[in-house]
Design goal:
The protein is mainly α and 100 residues long. The protein has 2 domains: 54 residues, no CATH class; 37 residues. Helix content is 75%, strand content 0%. The model has no long low-confidence stretch (mean pLDDT 75).
């Protein structure tokens, strides 16, 4: 990845926004229970790890053949309802009588 590409620049900005607060964080005193940049960064990285583990397990659990027998008819019915029933409703909402 070249340094002048928009993707690299976007990742660089994200990295700076995530890790810069941790570099400037103050040491936590014993009586301090507030949220400082170091705690925020630590909690954010923990959340990213949990999200990553969940994201890694999605592809194998995405399609279950036993669920497809009831999911596909619902998807088909939803598509038909959107295609057939939603257009006349949208046309009525945008009619000249209702726009006044």
């Amino acid at each position: 990845m070249r340094a002048d590409t928009p993707v690299f620049q976007s990742w660089l900005i994200v990295a700076v926004l995530v890790f810069a607060p941790a570099a400037h964080a103050e040491n936590k005193s014993e009586g301090d229970s507030g949220c400082n940049p170091s705690q925020f960064t630590h909690q954010t990285l923990d959340e990213v790890k949990v999200f990553g583990h969940g994201l890694k397990s999605v592809p194998r659990n995405l399609f279950r053949p036993s669920n497809l027998k009831w999911e596909l008819p619902i998807v088909a019915a939803t598509g038909i309802l959107i295609a057939e029933a939603d257009i006349p409703a949208a046309n009525r909402i945008q009619s000249a009588d209702l726009q006044q």
